[in-house]
Specification:
single chain; 6-stranded mixed sheet
């Protein structure tokens, strides 16, 4: 996975870093042998993800359009989907 992400180092990527089904823009700031790091758009928090938590990486030189019916649409050259823990709230 390192070889897939290295060409995008320093660039904006799409990633579902906070919510499982919402792809958001972030800057890819580090890629190592075992993990990668992103910075939230606007210079926000830095998130570190182990490669074993990656579910899917999607690449398309023509761009990958994200966003839903009522959300802002954006296009990325690469989209990374990471696994999220499911939260259960007592009823």
């Amino acid at each position: 996975m390192k070889e897939i992400l290295l060409p995008y180092l320093g660039q904006k990527i799409g990633i579902n870093y906070e919510r499982a089904f919402k792809v958001e823009p972030a800057q890819l700031i580090e890629v190592t042998d075992t993990y990668f790091s992103i910075r939230e758009e606007g210079g926000g928090n830095v998130h570190h993800f182990p490669f074993m938590g990656v579910v899917q990486i999607i690449e398309n030189p023509a761009g990958i359009r994200t966003g839903g019916l009522f959300s802002h649409k954006e296009t990325f050259l690469v989209v990374v989907k990471v696994a999220h823990l499911t939260e259960y709230v007592p009823v």
